[in-house]
Amino acid sequence: MQLTVLGTRSGMPAEGQPSSGYLVEAGTAGRLLLDCGPGITTALSAVTPVESLDAVVISHMHADHCYDLLPLGKALLHARAARVLAETTLEPMQALTALDASAPGVPLYVPVGGRAVLDRLAALFPVATFPLLDRAFDIAFDVREYEPGAAFTVGDCAVSLHPGRHTAPNCGARIASPLGTLSYTGDTGLAEGLRGLADGVDLLLAEATLDATDHGPHGHLSATDAGRIAAENGVGELVLTHFATGDPAVLHRRRAAAAAVFTGPVHIARPGLRLPVAARAPLSRP
Ligand SMILES: [Zn+2]
User: Fold this and answer.
1) Total structural domains in the chain?
2) 82 contact partners, CB below 8 Å, separation of at least 6
């Protein structure tokens, strides 16, 4: 199992770094994209063909976690048109009208209500001459709305979705494969659901947006919060992400804060970082 960090920034992409997006690969059957913020489609295409995805899981419908789904859908449609082109004598633009719209799309899991948001997004940019390009969410994806607590499989992976505490409904994703187990928080403050999300995972990818614990209604974690969650749940290693800055001094302090309460390895996520995730015996808990 392997985690590839595509983007780590919170609301505002900056310094050439995309917002939230992570590729999880579990062997040949189970390639998942977790979140798809601004810049993620471009970053994803640099490491794997977009059509190789087996599923996309969106933690919540904030722009920094889902705004690039429309470009990703169009890239998937283009990949289908390229296959048509390779098999026919059609002109490139004709291939866009000849692709098989009935073939299954990539499963795209969004919170309940997410489908309507995506349809509104797509409707903002009509392409009257090639109507198929307006139907990314009908053709390129198989959009599936999920409730908190939902569970499903992607290839060899068992995926479960655990509610957090955020100003938009958010679920963290736990991905268990024969090769290892990884969980991703999405955006959340401290919440009961984090226990089921993080319990005994080999790698916890946790947001660490804030300097201090958030007791307000918005819902984010500090690095200390993330470290405590990792320690209390017997996590193997911790990756901190979702930063409002790329300042090395700030990121160093984030890592130190988590390492002060969690004795396992602590990594700072950065675009391009690849980490193997191997199944291991859980650490002893405090
Ligand atoms: Zn958010």
Assistant:
1) 1
2) 95
